[in-house]
Amino acid sequence: MAPDESIERACVYVYFSLKLEYEAQGHLWVRASEVPGGFDAELYAWMRDWVRDAWPFHFERVGWPGRETPWAEWEALPDKDPMEL
Known about the structure:
Blueprint: E1 10-16, E2 24-30, H1 39-53, E3 62-63, H2 71-76
Parallel strand pairs: 2-3
Antiparallel strand pairs: 1-2
């Protein structure tokens, strides 16, 4: 949220990953008006570090599709066996 709570600046999601190589996957979006000021890069760096260092689930392998891994490569990764989820 903006400091005055007038707009939602961004949103972050962390899910269990369906991809074999990863335990979790993170996604975030930033309002278009916030991108020119560098908020997207700032938020992504902060979230990546927070999930790695402080998130209570302590996943070691967190993927960031569309950021660290291009979407086409992410989609091509092998999926986990649904019976093992």
